[in-house]
Amino acid sequence: MIDFSIIIPTYKDWGRLSLCIDRLLNQKVEGVHFEIIAVDNEPEHAPPAFFLSKYVHNNVSLIHETSPGSYAARNRGAKLAKGTYLAFTDADCLPDNRWLNNAKNRFDEEDCDLIGGKIDIFKPDEGGEWAFIYEKHMSFRQHIHVKKGRSVTANLLVKRRVFESLKGFDSDVKSGGDWEFTERAVSKGFKMVYGDGVVVKHPARKSVKEIMKKQKRFAAWGYLNVKNRYEHSGLRIIGSSLLRGTPASFKSASYPEKLNEKLIVLLISLQIHAYKMTLQILFLLRIRDPEKIRE
Q1: CA proximity to 99, closest of 8, 29, 188
Q2: How many CA atoms lie within 13 A of 149 on its CB side?
Q3: Which of 16, 153, 167, 266 could link 88 by a cystine bridge, Cβ 3.0 to 4.6 Å?
Q4: pLDDT tens across 215-227, in order?
Q5: CB-based burial of residue 213 (10 Å sphere; 0-12 exposed, 13-18 middle, 19+ buried)?
Q6: Residue 150: left if φ>0, alpha if ψ -120 to 50, beta else—which one?
């Protein structure tokens, strides 16, 4: 019997995917059985020879999903999964060597349906100090978000029967589908808990420029989601961002303890806020198309 099916979408990231799988194959498991399903989301399926020869064997599968988007890829992997639990992570993540054991214990102790695990941010090679400081304090704050019914797929574990009953992720969404899925699960009465001992490591973005690129996707997804789900006008969305986003930017500086880190987080938070506001105005004026940014 397979306990966990680990599902990892990838897009032109074979090197980091290899490191992730190395960590998984060295899990310290105590009677916990697992399989690994990597899902290639490139239009042309051309995995490198080293990957096929080293990793594709009995409990590591490589499949291809032509529909664009990581959520379509995750749904594809879930359809082939045999485990009682689905364990989602990303190609650039490094799971702790007791990730699965601790997850199994958490499921058994809490009798829960979903676990949003802890994400530790590390500084990658050639990464900038400012970007690392911001990401360390502001990214993947699972201990806060899980309590609000949200978890990211960098470290999300779900009972397979629950995932199937919810019909998986919304594959039309290209960004933010993890929060949409977990909010939907909690709204249906399924129990999600935070797993402090269920840990993966995630690299910080290497530069502030990379952080802004990520925020551009978030801004586009957020604008479309609010507009489509709640039928809010573009002006209302901009007004809400102005009233809520500005105080939130200043509040972000309360998280670091060191003064220099407070200032760095504040400056980047204000830059992100101004950038998102500018994008929303461009969306309203139809100068930029948020659908294209999502893609």
Answers
A1: 29
A2: 12
A3: 153
A4: 998 888 788 878 8
A5: exposed
A6: beta
Q: Which domain holds residue 239?
A: 208-294
| Interval 135-158: pLDDT, tens | 999 999 999 999 999 999 999 999
Closest to 166 in 3D by CA, of 148, 182, 179, 155? 182
Count Cβ neighbours within 10 Å for each residue of 150-160 and write b for 16 or more, e otherwise: bbbbbbbbbbb
Please say whether the dihedral angle defined by the alpha carbons of residues 145, 223, 232 and 186, taken in this order, is positive or negative.
negative
Shared-domain flag, residues 113 and 239: no
Look at the chain and count its residues: 295
Helix (H, G, I), strand (E, B) or coil at 207: coil
Pair (97, 30) in one structural domain: yes
What gap in Å lies between CA 199 and CA 103, rounded to an integer? 9
Total domains present in the chain: 2
278 vs 247: CA distance, rounded Å? 17
Look at residues 191, 214, 216, 192 and name the one whose alpha carbon lies nearest to residue 202: 214
Same domain assignment for residues 165 and 64: yes
**AA identity, residue 161:** R
Specify the DSSP element, H or E, that contains 138.
helix 129-138
